[in-house]
């Protein structure tokens, strides 16, 4: 069964590119373009990995993952590894990500091979 990945980014070009890349690798991809929508998707379906853009209008990626973690904890569900992606070198957001112990933090544009390695590494953590 294909591993399920939720991609959360407000930029359609990014979500389409990542979806195409990850589907080619055999992953089951769901796209969300807002934090609120991502939270609803997590409530209705199980995922093996979350990939979130840091900067989004409304609820950013860090606020979104905090809400998702709260929901999972409340429902006694296992945590989901998170990869944050960003096109901006924002020291404050990076510190927030580190303090939250996110699995990985990647700057756009990124090398696709490196990105796939990060995805595989974080999915390997959830196997079993």
Topology:
Blueprint lengths: L3 E5 L3 H13 L3 E5 L2 H10 L4 E5 L7 H14 L7 E5 L4 H9 L4 E4 L4 H15 L2
Parallel strand pairs: 1-2, 1-3, 3-4, 4-5
Helix pairs in contact: 2-3
Supply the CATH class of the domain at 1-6 and 34-83: Alpha Beta
Query: What does the average pLDDT come to?
Result: 90
The outline comes out as: globular
Order of helices and strands: EHEHEHEHEH
Q: Which strand order spans the largest sheet, edge to edge or round the barrel? A: 2-1-3-4-5
Major β-sheet annotation: 5 strands, parallel
What is the name of the CATH architecture of the domain at 1-6 and 34-83? Answer: 3-Layer(aba) Sandwich
Name the CATH homologous superfamily of the domain at 1-6 and 34-83. Response regulator
Content of β-strand: 15-25%
Walk me through the structure.
The two termini are 13 Å apart. The chain has five helices and five strands; from the N terminus they run E-H-E-H-E-H-E-H-E-H. The chain has a domain at 1-6 and 34-83: 3-Layer(aba) Sandwich (Rossmann fold). By secondary structure, the protein is of the alpha/beta class. The model has no long low-confidence stretch (mean pLDDT 90). Helix 4 links the parallel strand 4 (82-86) and strand 5.
In short, what is this structure?
The protein has 128 residues and is of the alpha/beta class.
């Amino acid at each position: 069964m294909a591993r399920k990945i939720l991609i959360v980014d407000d930029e359609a070009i990014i979500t389409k590119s990542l979806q195409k890349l990850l589907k080619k690798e055999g992953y089951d991809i769901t796209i969300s373009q807002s934090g609120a929508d991502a939270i609803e998707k997590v409530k209705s379906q199980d995922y093996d990995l979350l990939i979130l853009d840091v900067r989004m209008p409304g609820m950013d990626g860090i606020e979104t993952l905090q809400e998702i973690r709260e929901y999972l904890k409340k429902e006694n569900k296992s945590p989901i590894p998170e990869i944050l992606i960003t096109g901006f070198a924002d020291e404050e957001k990076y510190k927030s990500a580190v303090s939250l112990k996110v699995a990985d933090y990647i700057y756009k544009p990124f090398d696709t091979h490196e990105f796939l390695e990060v995805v595989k590494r974080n999915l390997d953590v959830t196997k079993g």
